[in-house]
Amino acid sequence: MSRKTTEKVVRLCDNCHNNFTLLPCEARRRKARFCSRKCQHEYRKNVSPKVLCEVCKKEFSASKCNIEKGKSRFCSLRCYHKSTENKITLICDECSKIFDVSESTFFYHKTRFCSKYCYGKWSSRERVGENAPVWKGGVTPENKRRRGLIEYHNWRVLVFQGDGYICQCCFDPKRKNLNAHHIFPWAKYPNLRYTLENGVTLCYDCHTTWHKQMRKDSFWSRI
Q: Domain check: are 212 and 159 in the same one?
């Protein structure tokens, strides 16, 4: 027994003016004027009146009813929030740059810096030692404290960049867990701790093997 076929309804798209087909039930249920959502959005974008955003002065489409009610004043929520905030002009404590913040941000966060970079730069210089908020009287071991300084961090980055972020022992580019190794040991040569020529990039496995071999041969104990 053959299945009954339903003749489809042919209509003309109001935007691209191409014919498209619909089932009779779909044609009765809704006013199909467009062949796709893309055509529907393009048509509304071209037909809807244009309004200028009160904050960024960007032109955007809005419906007539919203314009009459005075609702279409901003192109986005971001512009709306900007319009409701009162701005305060401040000077960055680090770079002396003039910047604006909202009253709420200044009230809750006590903003003093124009960016996270300026805050981090100031914090690494001023909030160390006794000025640090978590200072406990100098109980941190000297070795751990020195390895946490910004000078040690910058030295590691320069060593990695100089070696192209590749282990100089196995030269495997897939090794991502890299260590900056001191050619002349950290403990015995304090004057060379932050010297760029005293560093070499090693992966974790090669670095561990290197130190095991050094302890086994007792090479550095004879220097």
A: yes
